[in-house]
Design goal:
ATP binds at residues 78-82, 225, 237. It contains 17 helices and eight strands. With 450 residues, it is an alpha/beta fold. Helix 9 (248-261) runs parallel beside helix 11 (286-307).
Length: 450
C-alpha cells in the first residue's frame, strides 16, 4: 500500500514567509554584485605581465602586423576571461570585439551558430552546412566594421577546447576556415584577430600542419593565483560587498582554501558569498567559511555531474568503480582508459581525448592530479577524488551507487569465503596445483607415447 504525503498549499501568506526567509540570506550584504563571479571589476588585481603580453600583440596592429590567433590558457579561475574583457572594454576604441562562450556548444556547427548569435545574427539550420555558417560570420564582421568605420575586430572564443569533443566533426578544419576568413578580410584592409581561451594551449591539440603554420606561437599562459593574490582580490571586493567587513584572518582562511585547490579566485569569491548567506547578518567567521566550502562541494558536484557529456559521465563512473573495487583513493590514467574502453568498445574516444576530459574534471574541482614516477614504465598521472566517493556516487544516481555497493559486498563476501578456505586447508591453491600437475602429467604421457 502506497502512502502519499500531503503537499503544503502555496498561498499569499506562504509566499510572504518564503520571501522573509530568503531575505535573511542577504542581510549581511551591502552590495552583493561584487561577489558575483561574472562581475567585471573596475580594476584588475595582479596579471600585469599577462596584460603586457596581450597589449604588445594589440599594439603591433598599429605597425601593420596583426597576429591572426592568440592562444590564452591556464586553469579555471585564473582570470583569463576577465582580463581579456577588461582590456577590450577599456583600452582600444578603434576596434570592435565579440566575446563568445562556447561551453554549451556540442558540435562545430553549434559553435558557429553561437558565434552568429553573439554577432546579432539568426541561427542557421544544420542543412546549411558549416561553410555557409563561417561565410556568414565573415560577412557580419565585415558589415560591422563598415558601419562603425573601424578596421580591427577581435573575436574572443572562450572555453574553446569544447570543439575537440565533437568526434564526428573536424576541429582542425574548423580552425582552418576561421584563419582563412582572417586572410580574406585582410585582403580588404580589414583585420581580424581570433583569441582562444581554454585550459590548454591551442598547439597542444591534434591540429593539421596547415593550421599550425598559420597560428604561430602567440601564447599567453596564466599561472594559478597564489594565496596572496586571492587575498588581495577578495579583500577589495569585501570592502564593497559586506555591511560588516570580515576580519583579515577570515579572508586569509578563504584564500587558503581556494589556493589549496588550484588557485581559483572564482571559488574564493563564491566561498565569501555563501558564507555571507549562512551568517544571517552576523559578521562572517572562519566556521562560516568552512560550512560554505562544504556546501559548495555538494553544489559543484551536482553541476559537474549534471552538465557532463556522455563520455565524461562514463569516465566519472569508471573512476568511482575502480576506487570502490580497489578500496583506494587513487587511480592512474591507463587503468581508467582500459576500463572505459571495456565499457564502450568501438564507441570509445582516443586516449588523448580521454586525457583532455580528465583534465577538464581536474579543472572543475572534482579530481586532483599528480605526476608520479613508475620506474621503467616512465611517468604517469595519478588521480584522486577531491570530494568523498560516496557523495560522487550518490550524485551519479542512487540506484547505480547502491548497485555498486551490493556488487562490492558480494565480491568481498566471496573473497572472504575463499580466504577462509585457503586458511583452513589452502583448498583453492591445492586445486590449482593439482590442475597444473594433471596438465603436466598428460604432457609427459603424450611425449612418452610419441
Amino acid at each position: 500500500m502506497m502512502i502519499y504525503a500531503l503537499q503544503v498549499e502555496l498561498t499569499k501568506d506562504t509566499l510572504k514567509f518564503l520571501q522573509k526567509e530568503a531575505s535573511k540570506k542577504n542581510v549581511a550584504f551591502s552590495d552583493k554584485k561584487y561577489l558575483d563571479s561574472l562581475f567585471l571589476p573596475a580594476g584588475i588585481i595582479g596579471r600585469r605581465n599577462e596584460a603586457l603580453q596581450l597589449i604588445e600583440y594589440f599594439e603591433s596592429m598599429k605597425k601593420g602586423l596583426m597576429v591572426p590567433a592568440i592562444s590564452i590558457y591556464g586553469r579555471s579561475g585564473s582570470g583569463k576571461s576577465t582580463l581579456v574583457r577588461f582590456l577590450c572594454d577599456n583600452m582600444y576604441h578603434n576596434m570592435e570585439y565579440c566575446f563568445v562562450n562556447l561551453r554549451r556548444a556540442r558540435t562545430l556547427f553549434g559553435c558557429a551558430n553561437m558565434i552568429l548569435g553573439e554577432l546579432g545574427c539568426e541561427s542557421l539550420v544544420s542543412a546549411d552546412g558549416l561553410d555557409k555558417a563561417v561565410e556568414k560570420v565573415g560577412n557580419t564582421i565585415r558589415s560591422i566594421l563598415d558601419n562603425t568605420q573601424k578596421k580591427f575586430f577581435i573575436l574572443v572564443l572562450d572555453e574553446y577546447d569544447i570543439i575537440f569533443s565533437d568526434k564526428r566533426g573536424n576541429p582542425s578544419d574548423f580552425i582552418y576556415k576561421l584563419l582563412t576568413l582572417e586572410e580574406s578580410l585582410r585582403e580588404q584592409d580589414l583585420w581580424l584577430c581570433i583569441i582562444t581561451i581554454s585550459n590548454n594551449a591551442l598547439m597542444e591539440y591534434n591540429l593539421d600542419d596547415r593550421v599550425k603554420s598559420r597560428i604561430g606561437n602567440s601564447e599567453v599562459f596564466f599561472e594559478p593565483y597564489t594565496a596572496s593574490d586571492i587575498f588581495s582580490i577578495i579583500r577589495s571586493r569585501s570592502e564593497k560587498a559586506f555591511c560588516r567587513m570580515p576580519d583579515d584572518s577570515v579572508l586569509e582562511k578563504c584564500a587558503e582554501l581556494a589556493a589549496d585547490g588550484h588557485g581559483d579566485a572564482r571559488r574564493a569569491i563564491d566561498l565569501l558569498r555563501v558564507a555571507g548567506e549562512i551568517s544571517n547578518g552576523r559578521k562572517i567567521t572562519e566556521k562560516d567559511i568552512i560550512k560554505a566550502d562544504q556546501s559548495l562541494q555538494v553544489d559543484r558536484l551536482k553541476t559537474v555531474i549534471g552538465s557532463a557529456s556522455y563520455h565524461q559521465g562514463t569516465i566519472v563512473r569508471t573512476i568511482c568503480e575502480i576506487l570502490l573495487e580497489n578500496e583506494s583513493n587513487t587511480t592512474i590514467t591507463s587503468a581508467i582508459y582500459q576500463r572505459y574502453c571495456d565499457k564502450l568498445g568501438e564507441k570509445s574516444l582516443s586516449y588523448r581525448r580521454v586525457v583532455d576530459l580528465l583534465t577538464e574534471l581536474v579543472n572543475s574541482g572534482l579530481l586532483h592530479a599528480r605526476n608520479i614516477s613508475r620506474g621503467r614504465k616512465g611517468y604517469g598521472t595519478e588521480y584522486t577524488l577531491v570530494i568523498p566517493l560516496e557523495l560522487v556516487g550518490l550524485a551519479i544516481g542512487k540506484d547505480w551507487w547502491y548497485d555498486q555497493l551490493e556488487s562490492k559486498e558480494l565480491m568481498d563476501s566471496v573473497n572472504a569465503s575463499i580466504g577462509r578456505r585457503t586458511k583452513q586447508g589452502s583448498l583453492l591453491a591445492e586445486m590449482m596445483k593439482t590442475s597444473r600437475l594433471i596438465k603436466k602429467y598428460d604432457t609427459m604421457e603424450d611425449l612418452a607415447d610419441s
